[in-house]
Protein 1
Amino acid sequence: MSFRMRTGFFLQTRTGCGSTTGPVSRVLKYCNSRSLAVVPQGGNTGLVGGSVPVFDEVIINMASMKNVVSFDKVSGILVCEAGCILENLISFLDNQGFVMPLDLGAKGSCQIGGNVSTNAGGLRLVRYGSLHGNVLGIEVVLANGDVLDMLGTLRKDNTGYDLKHLFIGSEGSLGIITKVSILTPPKLSSVNLAFLACKDYSSCQKLLLEAKRRLGEVLSAFEFLDNQSLDLVLNHLEGVRNPLPPSMHNFYALIETTGSDESYDKEKLEAFLLRSMEGGLISDGVLAQDINQASSFWRIREGVAEALMKAGAVYKYDLSLPVEKMYNLVEEMRIRLGDSSKVIGYGHLGDGNLHLNISTPQYDDMILAQIEPFVYEWTSKHRGSISAEHGLGLMKANKIFYSKSRESVQLMASIKKLMDPNGILNPYKVLPHSLSYS
Amino acid sequence: MSFRMRTGFFLQTRTGCGSTTGPVSRVLKYCNSRSLAVVPQGGNTGLVGGSVPVFDEVIINMASMKNVVSFDKVSGILVCEAGCILENLISFLDNQGFVMPLDLGAKGSCQIGGNVSTNAGGLRLVRYGSLHGNVLGIEVVLANGDVLDMLGTLRKDNTGYDLKHLFIGSEGSLGIITKVSILTPPKLSSVNLAFLACKDYSSCQKLLLEAKRRLGEVLSAFEFLDNQSLDLVLNHLEGVRNPLPPSMHNFYALIETTGSDESYDKEKLEAFLLRSMEGGLISDGVLAQDINQASSFWRIREGVAEALMKAGAVYKYDLSLPVEKMYNLVEEMRIRLGDSSKVIGYGHLGDGNLHLNISTPQYDDMILAQIEPFVYEWTSKHRGSISAEHGLGLMKANKIFYSKSRESVQLMASIKKLMDPNGILNPYKVLPHSLSYS
């Protein structure tokens, strides 16, 4: 059975909890009483199968809950329904002179409820921090249909356990987020972006350290990609070109600054780049001269995932690792796989987040067997995370022990059982099968 | 029975969990098996009785766990034991070129484990955000003595429920934090501080909004106090003087900026102050010329609590409220109490956090009856928090319903029961008595 809630159904009911939470509550109450499993679904842009039904789950699609509830221009606090598309919120805030502390490639489709449920990271985390810091409150419907109103709009509130954090990143397995309150920073007028080349990974690392120290408060993104990633984008995406003169560089970095003073910020970034060039950390580089050029630089970084899709089959890994060891994994994987595959590394260097992707002409179990469990064991050995920002969903639920202790996972399972005793909320996801049905 | 763990006891045992976690685990295992209640105690600087025994609880004093475990200069990630005194960590990091994202008046005694357990806020929250954003991992001993190793040092990790948040701010009632991993930003070289006078509260608010927008990325603190607070400090603390020429101002604000460029940052702040003066938002003001003058300005703001103690009896309230309504409460309280008491308001305006304090010659139940429950009802009516940063502890546990819904508190109690079925961890605290023994 697959069931999509119709807009009409959403609109015909008003309750004390707002116009659209009531029906979600009633659907869950009904499903819980009959032990019918449900999958909450936002923009369905996740990469680990967290928002797709596995067998006969009822899909609760959140797209109709797309209203902004309130925005306070003094505090910058936005309250909105879970189905708001991220890009729409970004535009809304832009008109108000504020910015979302979250930005990611899928913004055109992904929804804020899904972002919060999966604790999405993205491109601005290095500046604004994680959603655990920026989300001030949520309204959530529990498995039994109870509505938990934690929709606070306060920066500080130490009255009891801060339960909202249980739902941030739990991928819809403990409740369905229906509203979100989020702290948004004022928009700053001056944004600068540089596309840079580094001769080796060690230079990228040093450049990051220097950027954090010298650009300090204006640094808003530090992304990197290797030359294999750039080649892939140039070969598979139309209209994308290398901003630098053709030459052999091994790594590329995007450094973005966001501040409140156009001329000073640009001078500051230019001075930093000059210094880094003289110090040998950068081999070449170009500063975006206008917003179009900046968009074309971002297109390269944000286009890697799309280019991979066009190139053939792809094995995707989203890992957190200590920055100094991060790229060793890419190199070891290349040696392991030889010429059978293209191994590329890119991601949010500023957050220690590597997107390791392996591109092959078609899916091949022999290749997969060479990648896994090696990639997880390597990550675990270096105390990394096997899912930095994508979550576990269906695909990685059984891999949780590579990053979490048995005691921690056991406690997660106990909390799941406490809050969803019939196991109706997004089953087969997040927690390992061995535990979620015990 | 009151029991203080001796240093010798801590040191004589080494386990896989580090040199000092083992004994905490064994003490809890023992106490749990015999249903002996325990109180974890850090610097004992809390204001709501969260770290004091009520009847016969065993005190587990954390002062011996005072080692820095590791510090990574590339990522700025500090791992340390729970008993480290905040000020020692601030000094340690200063030597490494980094800063703690947390600073508060009690830093000379309070411990990082206590800070995290109570989700301490303090003076830098407006810049660096809350501990939910900055704490990357913790090690915690559960009621049954199990050690939960969640001591991650990664900025991003979406593998399962992020359980550490349950312990941040739960005031030792779900487990005892033994180690902390925290993300620290690089120290920026240029700090500027201005002490300003505003004619009315409305000007303070507008000044805050302007500061957020125009100082943007360099704003690191925005504190306010009313003239009654300043009078109290000037009258009761030795060696403190008003930095401004004597004149009748109703409000004072401290604005601090932290950036990476001395001359530019100062110019920026000066330009902002000039503009605000011309626009009538500021009536008078002075920019600290050196670190000594800056310390003397901070002494005024940080000295209010001490001055109150010297002035007589004090009723303390730590409230989060929408900024625009915040000071109405102070004014209404003055009308309510008449000449019997001094009502003062100060706090972290940048975070919407008011410290409302009522000073009387001695404690008087008649006065208390005029303050409570009025202050809680007023706060609840405006969807504020009755404890912004101090927690609930013993004194406010029964007040939780003013800020949290019945469903939320019920879920908190269920989680408490799941994790501490014998109720040995910090009993009588945080949760209302009606629920914690049900």
Protein 2
Amino acid sequence: MTRPPLLIESPQNPQFKLWESALDGRGLKKNGKFLLAGLKTVPEALRQRPDRFERLLFTDPAQIAGWPLPAGVEPVQLAPALFRALDVSGTGFPLLVGNVPRFPMIDLSQPPQGLELLCALGDPSNLGALLRSAAAFGASRVVLLEGAAHPFHPKCLRAASNAQFSLTLLRGPRWAEVNAAAGPLYALDGGGTDLTRFDWPTDLRLILGEEGQGVPADCPAVRLSVPTTGNVESLNATVAVSVALFARFAALR
Amino acid sequence: MTRPPLLIESPQNPQFKLWESALDGRGLKKNGKFLLAGLKTVPEALRQRPDRFERLLFTDPAQIAGWPLPAGVEPVQLAPALFRALDVSGTGFPLLVGNVPRFPMIDLSQPPQGLELLCALGDPSNLGALLRSAAAFGASRVVLLEGAAHPFHPKCLRAASNAQFSLTLLRGPRWAEVNAAAGPLYALDGGGTDLTRFDWPTDLRLILGEEGQGVPADCPAVRLSVPTTGNVESLNATVAVSVALFARFAALR
């Protein structure tokens, strides 16, 4: 590392306050900065997606000695208390600051392109786990309906394992407007068609309900179900979607 | 409801204190009582497993008016503050008190019976999600290795959706002794054999690592992997196991 790093020690520092705003959805929307944490995800993202980041935050220069820093990523040393305030998962490992990308608004009157997931998961950890499975099993686009958590919330980033950087994320409308979306439309439901006997189309929209609520009854989507023993009344929502995505991925290979 | 319910108003009441001990693993072990919460799970468990419960707790008798109460389940009215202290998920819905069953110690020198899951998940929510998938996809027995969360912890019950009542739960030894277990032994690993091309034996032990750590390198289990796009470095652990259990369940049907 040849550049001497900037040192920030005051909680009143405007840059620190900007990064602090990345810890909740409101600040993410207002200021457009996000914080990536994680012993595996930070080095991976820095290697694979250097253009997404602008700062590398740490407390001790020894932590990043020998790291190949891309030209656009400036190292910044923080006083330990400031660093801990940003390191909400307690990784004790350098953090990356990135710019939240724009999420274009989808036009649902147009047909789907590949497998599109439509969801309004309000819990950032649940949304993150879903994004991880979506990236792992080849969903092309994820549409965040009104009420969905922010996909760059620290908890969502933590659960997603860098899935945000390989997915196309789009904004969607409210539930009421989903009913008029161009199909084919599908939704998961315990009473639907067994998805292991289903011939997956190339392009489709798969709609996920809110946590604990499912898809509205008036939604015109065809219902698909994951076959089970029947020993539990339902699957965990993230597990059900992940299994569905896997079944399609395995069937199309 | 013909029996007038007992009313408890003091936090010093010995029965209340007993139920309060069900909120953590130590109290669960010491006193052997557990608390089941949930708008769907409580009525379902009362209908399907009445023999597992001894008390139904509520704050207002109107909440349980018309409930068919089995003979062995005594209704108990609690002062609102006491009820809230036990209703840690904030359901505002009657709670069931049950007796924690005995978990026999497994003899791993004996061959497996059906699909046995061996795990040491220390987070009760993660363990609960795993139990739910195990019950849904036909794992016959779940072996809780040393360090696993208590399967009747409130968070585990909440995540498992009554899976505890249909599974055979056993206690297991420490990691070091798992290496000597009778096989066939399998473990999930990103670099293993593609499990969609795997011929599942009827009887096997599937070993799950601890959160974020995986299975110890010296564990002699054959590694299986869930095929993915490669766009994320790994799957969420619960998702990976659930997909594996589903793949086996679907293949054997």
